[in-house]
Each structure stands twice: as structure tokens, then as C-alpha cells.
Amino acid sequence: MARRVVSRKDLRAQAEAAEAQEQAEPKKKAVKKKTTVKRKTKTKAAADVRMKLYWGVFSQNLKRVAVFEFDQKDEADKRAEELSKGGKSPHFVQKVKEEVVAE
Predict the structure, then answer these.
(1) Cut 0.70: pTM above it
(2) Which of 2, 21, 66, 85 could form an S-S bond across to 57 if both were Cys, CB 3.0 to 4.6 Å?
(3) How many domains does the chain have?
(4) Which residue, among 72, 73, 79, has the nearest Cα to 58 in the 3D structure?
């Protein structure tokens, strides 16, 4: 089998012909794809929630038995002592924060 020998001149001629053909055809502009951009959703800023501090009297099972204003700690302590008397389950006083309802 005989191989056909391709010279550099032939290859160069083919390359120049291809370039000339490309230049003869008008170049098409590259079409840009429209990208969908996700909109950033604006979230409402949470309104400042006002909290108020109370004293709560709790049982041993962590059930709230009574609530007193913050300046009435002495009354809360007395109530806890009353509930703990007589061998009943011990009660204790703890701070409680509750949301203030706007009227």
C-alpha cells in the first residue's frame, strides 16, 4: 500500500483556505444567556419585644404556683415558705421573664 505524502505546502494551503472561508462569512455575535438572578427577600425586622421581670414561686416539679411583681420578693419568699411547711414538697423562688403585651 502506498501512502500519499502530504507536504507542508499543501497543509499550509489548506489552513489559509479555511481562514479565508471564515473571514468571508460574517461573524455571529455571541448570544448571552439571560441569567435569572434571585431577588433577595426583605424580611421585616422583628419588633422589639419588651420583657418584664417577675418573681415566680415554683414547686419541686417546676410548676409555677404564684407570680409576684419584681419589687415583692419578700412576699414571694413568704409564699414559698408557707407552701413548703408541713413536710410538703419544697418550693422555691426564681426570676421569670414575661413578654409585655402592648395595649
Answers:
(1) no
(2) 66
(3) 1
(4) 79
